[in-house]
Amino acid sequence: MQRDPGQPMENSRRPSPLSGRRATQRLLALAAGLAQDSGIRIAVRDAPTWSWDPQQHVLVVARDTLDQLGPAQCAGLVAHEIGHCLVSRYHRFDRSEWPTWLGSELMNALEESRAEGFISARFPGVRAWLESLNEREDPAFSPDLPWIALFALACVVEPRHHWVPLPHPLPAEVQDALTATRTARRRYMRTVPKPDWSLDDRVPIPHHDLPADPPANAPTTTPRERVVLAHAWQAYLLARRTILPVAMRLYQQDVDHLARGLASNPTWIPLAQQALALGIQPLIWTIVQLGLRQGRATPAPQPAADALMRLSVALLERSTITDPPAVATTPGSSPPAAARATVAPRPSPVPESGFAPATGYPGPMDYRELLDRHLVHIDHLVHRIEAILEPQRNPALQAGFASGTHLNLRHAMACEFDPREYTRLWMRRSLPQAHDLTAFLLVDLSGSMARANRIEAATVGLLILAEVLERIPNVRWAAAGFQDEIIPIADFHEGLTAAVQRRFEHLRGEVHGRNPGGHNQPSYNDDGPAVRHATRRLLERPSTRHLLIAISDGLPEGRHSTEEDLRQAIREASQADVQVVGVGIGEHTDHVANFYPHHLARVPIDDFPRRMAAMIERLLLP
After folding, report:
1. 69-102, pLDDT tens digit by residue?
2. With b meaning 16 or more CB within 10 Å and e meaning fewer, what string describes 513-527?
3. Which residues pair with 598 in a beta bridge?
4. At residue 485, what are phi and psi to the nearest 5 degrees?
5. How far apart are CA 353 and CA 8, in angstroms?
6. What is the pLDDT of residues 493-517, one digit of tens each?
7. Which of 211, 332, 435, 479 could connect to 489 by a Cys-Cys bridge, CB 3.0–4.6 Å?
């Protein structure tokens, strides 16, 4: 980048002829130039909050918040997020040995100063922006917070105060932990690549021992990315040796205090179990704070029961301040830190504590984990469908013209019987036209889908299709589940927003009748009305192709319809030129062949993209 990104910010402190929104937009555009170094884009949209789109690598800036933040803080926030995209990679490493509070929350807190330190070294001009951003008030250090939360907040705030011990009143245990780790945390902040990305001899570049996914020695990993990963790994090793063990002692004390508080107030225990089962975050926070306050004031003559300790762990894990980071779609594209609070949360399933909400229901799924696991399949299917929808480059003969260069012999005989055929007698060479596609995805959410992991397989198949359709130009799509009523998942033009991703995660809850605030009627699945609804929504949108894909186990058990209603709905859709495909993912789904003329049955997840591409190719090619 040739222009010093900090210069416009310094000039902005002087009176400017630009007013309000225009000045803010100008500064944001200048800050967005930093994105060229990380391969992401900045988009200003009419959205309620800032967010990160990992599929498109876009940092979405809420238009209404620009004036509220002011130009300096707005530019500083963009620079902060670009810093995370450039160097934050801890989410690539195995942190399963640590609780969520340490492996995600605390690591994210440590990365704040590391990301800002690197972006300031690479682009010195952004320091003024970051200083303006960090002039905001410190977060509230409430004494009712878990000690591990106070420690994480202090790890964020201390670098802003030049590593001077904070004036906030903190428990002695937290102060001791901060003192014991201050030197290591300063080293962690400095363990970053050189501003010019050159190799640092002090940091070895590993070949086979870096636990990253994809592996650091994969052919797709660029030399710069290997340098970034090596420094991130060295930083994580430092944290694992010197910082996380100290924080773990605070975490264990929080668990002990919370268990002690719950034991002192047994009436809170069923309330805590219900809050976890339903995912009521405010109630979880209230129980944690009350339990900690009571537990710290109550002596413990003997250790709490194991079940109570596990319940305390579950409460703490679900009371995290921010969401864990999303898994980026390409190596090296860590999501912005401030945007993590606006993307879809990742609810943790209730641990093995005996407090699961219902037998056989393991809790919501994790959208980003599923996405990361199937990126290769998604990319494969994207290329296949794009090849089908895009026109061929070579001209081809097309019939149906009143004049041309070639005679259409097929219509020549017809002219003897129907003179109107003379207007279609000739053929011309022309480039094929590109097709647009409108698709509607349906998924059966009846109770029968809970058997043999069908809903898990169906959710993965639905996710793959949604991700593929979202990435292809000239494609519009919507998705819905159905029981005795339609359960919306994504409307046309809504895209894979945070809200849509949450709905994907809770599809399993609908099948088990345990989705908080959901429809929860798994005893029924009215397939026929659902197909009619999808057909109607498709035909409302003019398109070259209309495609309806229904993922089901093929056994209609409707409250308002019968099996014959489904067959009639499919016939009506086909007559309206809507191509209907029935998909049965996983074992024991042969029933779809009894209803859908185009169908895939007993499809393994790994083979789903290939078979779906072949099916779409047969349907869409002329």
Report:
1. 766 677 777 888 888 888 888 888 878 788 888 8
2. bbbeebbbbbebbbb
3. 581
4. -140, 165
5. 56
6. 888 888 899 899 999 989 988 888 8
7. 479
